[in-house]
Amino acid sequence: MTKFIVIASSKGGVGKTTTAINLGTALTVFGRDVIVVDCNFSTPNIALYLGSPQVPVTLQDVIKEGKHISDALYMHSHGLKVVPASPSLKHKGRIDMKKLAKMLRDLAGEADFVIIDSPSGLTEDTIESIKMGDEVLVVSTPELPAVSDALRTIKTAREHGKTVRGVILSRVYEDELELSKEDVEAMLETKVIAMIPEDETVREAVKMKNPVTHTHPNAPASLSYKELAAELLGEKYVASAEENDNLFDYIMKRLGLK
Fold it and tell me: Angle, to 10 degrees, between the axis of helix 220-233 and the axis of helix 200-208?
């Protein structure tokens, strides 16, 4: 049965879209079929991040022109399926999110997971996106303002009867300026299920227009995304020797010992 997972955050710039893409590709490492849908119509970046900024049919075409959602479904070279939204000004305008929700259900049975990249903030569109999911993952950085915003997202999701599977902390330095995992869990009353380290390979991957899980499969960030995928699947990810070596090097550099 297809599981619909919404990636949400009340604050932009915390790594929501990066998480949607890399969680999707990490799930494919485990042999799962995954579709990522870009519902962030104000700043749609999924296709841009994957090197396909212009495609013949986008999600807006599906909604406004009555096309079938399968017409806007594209296979990335690494096995991830994507339904992109268009950044073009000609596609700007109000989107009927309730209509979109019904159309997305046509993807049921087409993949093991449908990952929905929701708009940032807590707009009406964000709330409608959250309502599309079976579960919600909330992305935040470990700073107080971002965590405070994450609390609003969690409360909103629960008010609409949605299960918040957990919190993903991204861009983590693990220094004294950040909130600890335990502090975040206490504030949000929600489990932190992944901590994605601040890793320059993520920026390199964006420049290369590919997921970091493929451009740098042994990088610390990639390891964290694969561990997150394993958590969602109820499995355990066993890191390779090379992944462990890279993680050790990363920690030593963060400590200024290398």
Answer: 90
What is the C-alpha separation between 5 and 78, in angstroms, rounded?
Answer: 20
DSSP conformational letter for 4? E
What is the residue type of 238? V
pTM of the model: 0.91
Query: Terminus-to-terminus CA distance in the chain, angstroms?
Result: 47
**Tokens for 206?**
């964006």
* Residues 134, 79: Cα–Cα separation, whole Å: 23
Query: Torsion-angle region of residue 9: left (phi > 0), alpha (psi -120 to 50) or beta?
Result: beta
Encoded amino acid at 166, one letter? G
Domains of the chain, first to last:
3-254 (3.40.50.300)
Alpha-carbon dihedral of residues 51, 26, 180, 238, nearest 10 degrees? -140
pLDDT digits (tens, 9 = 90+) for 143-172: 999 999 999 999 999 999 999 999 999 999
CA 40 to chain centroid: 12
Q: What does the alpha-carbon distance between residue 86 and residue 147 come to, in Å, rounded to a whole number?
A: 30
What is the H or E stretch that residue 220 is in?
helix 220-233
